[in-house]
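new request in #modeling-help
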Amino acid sequence: MSTALSVESEERAPGGDVLLSVRDLRVRFPTEDGLVKAVDGLSFDLRQGETLGIVGESGSGKSVTSQAIMGLYRGTRAEISGLISFDGVDLLGLGDEELRRRRGKDVAMVFQDPLSALHPYYTVGNQVVEAYLVHHETSKSAARQRAIDMLDRVGIPNPAKRIDQYPHEFSGGMRQRAMIAMALVNDPRLVIADEPTTALDVTVQAQILDLLVGLQKEFGSSIIIITHDLGVVAEMANEILVMYAGRAVERGVAEELFYAPEHPYTWGLLQSMPRMDRLRIERLRPIPGNPPSLISPPSGCAFHPRCTFRDDARLGCAQVEPGFDADRPHPVRCLIPPDERIRIFQTQIRPSL
Amino acid sequence: MSAGQGAPPGRRRFSGRRTQTGNRIELGEVLLEVEDLKKYFPMKTSGLFRRPADPVKAVDGISFRLRKGETLGVVGESGCGKSTAGRTILQLLPPTSGSIRYKGRDITGVTGHDLRMLRLEMQMIFQDPYGSLNPRQTIGSIVGAPFAIQRIDPEGGVKAEVQRLMERVGLNPEHYNRYPHEFSGGQRQRIGIARAIGLRPSLIVCDEPVSALDVSIQAQVVNLLEDIQNDFDLTYVFVAHDLSVVRHISDRVAVMYLGKIMEMADRDELYGDPLHPYTQALLSAVPLPDPRKENRRARILLTGDLPSPINPPSGCVFHTRCPRFREELTEQERTRCVKEVPAQVPLDADHGVACHYAGPAAAPVL
Ligand SMILES: Nc1ncnc2c1ncn2[C@@H]1O[C@H](COP(=O)(O)OP(=O)(O)OP(=O)(O)O)[C@@H](O)[C@H]1O
Ligand SMILES: Nc1ncnc2c1ncn2[C@@H]1O[C@H](COP(=O)(O)OP(=O)(O)O)[C@@H](O)[C@H]1O
Ligand code: SF4
Ligand code: SF4
Ligand SMILES: [Mg+2]
Ligand SMILES: [Mg+2]
């Protein structure tokens, strides 16, 4: 993590080959009020063994992105286009049967609310066993042993007994662990964790994040962690993607995003949060205004109604749509020229962080 | 801590109202005194023999004093009794025992006219900007409701007053006839705030008022809460689980665990020099938005789950998860933790810690 500030495209943080590549992903939902452009041209890569953090306000399209990667919009009214390539295979082009075969084994998901992912009428053990049997031809007793091992791995005390309990007999933190056990039981190569700790206390969150990091080291899987908590991504992610209104507005290695961010929205996020580890400031600096409508997003730059830098007439923020070159090492969706952005960060933003 | 003598240098008790004239800090009059407050919820009897079931000890003996204009932050894990404490103080729930003195008068169990008068002075702002507003009422009637309930006719009429309030909290007064679903989460929280300040209360219990909001909107609402605190001379009990927000807004902070206050101190002291192992663990668990710092930081991990408030552990309720108990104490010392309940943090504590072996953490927690 030391040379991160001077990265050129070749010298990224260490990591394997590209495992997941998303290009120009679009997900739209027809509704009574109009077409919701929940994800609107999203592109990113994730390498084997790395962790990508996706941050952004609620409604910015984080969960829709993960559901689209999991293929959970099949057979719904959602309109999906673009490319989601996993280990060279286009997931959007797969047949339903093939996708089911891969789901859980190649890609597994941890949700914010374990109660929605765990079935209330089956024991926790049954559900982990079933998840295992879908992908393995083996005896029930071998699968049960595997499930007990997994529950033990994720730190559930007394797993041989707990395995026969129902989800409601588990605490929130234990349910989250059980869901992680279920997600990891098939050694998936990619784990997507959508706000895995948002509903938990910080003490339990610390345990769960610790667990995810440990399991990743052990299994070498890649992780996408979706959260609105910049502290969580600082702890977990090598690479960070900032989303706004269904699009990526900035992407880079964690060091760049925290110590040399270039997008005004990223600046706003960092400035608006109270910091426990800094001298207390007299007054917080919120981002003005509210998140935009995804049915009729603002013209030009979608962030312009809330951006303090939009008034520079040379830029034309309300008319011109800024581009985003996903193949660059640190792409930024903003009309301010790169040198100028770096200067603004150094002179105006950094001193106030 | 003696009234009127001024706080030691470097300490500040009234975040919002620092006077231009310099360092003299006036300690306000005491507004609220809570002493050994308990709130138990009876459980339904169960089992063959129909013996009464043990109650949930949601709040199990807490004391604190609040001065006018001050903000007391209350933090702790889910289920530790923060909301119950807030609701009991406001007389929305009858206490099981203990006393609540408001402006020097014991208000525990007041009824009728007295209770109605009290309701004028104490309000609550809730976490859930969706569930706490009636979807079938217009904003105008929601914000105007307290006037109707209390049969108060403000000068210029209710509508004009409501529109003034809407403007004050940053809502467009022309939206008087709109319904809650037409507003975003942050705007709904503003509606809740407008409703709470209408009757010019002195004390507001804010129960997780910004927890459901995105960071950028959270900061807007925190600033608004600080502004109206100045304008209307409000005293806050600010319940939240976000330790960074609590540090920002509070003058003093109480850390709760299983219905009890573990530690209570001035904000800067609590965050800078936490002495209770639970406070230390809580602070160290918060991930900081700074990857370099995160890489260096050692986390104090708590093992196990929160025990049930129906059957809390003996002695110190924290002993089943306490890292100091586990790693630092002798057998003899541990026996004390298991058997002897640490003394309750007293109501006027400067820096109170309910721990037999209170002391700084082995390594800095932030
Ligand atoms: N009406 C009730 N009947 C029985 N038990 C209750 C009742 N209300 C709360 N409790 C219990 O009292 C304890 C404290 O609850 P409380 O809502 O005060 O916690 P809290 O600290 O506000 O938690 P959170 O952070 O989740 O809001 C919990 O164990 C809860 O289940
Ligand atoms: N099934 C659906 N039908 C219509 N709109 C949807 C659907 N799912 C999500 N959306 C909308 O898509 C946008 C992005 O949602 P989401 O990805 O869940 O946001 P977040 O970033 O908070 O996870 C939101 O405006 C949401 O209301
Ligand atoms: S393009 Fe303009 S409005 Fe958009 S972020 Fe850059 S400066 Fe702000
Ligand atoms: S009294 Fe003992 S168990 Fe309780 S917090 Fe102190 S050291 Fe830990
Ligand atoms: Mg989401
Ligand atoms: Mg609560």
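bot summary: The radius of gyration of chain B is 22 Å.
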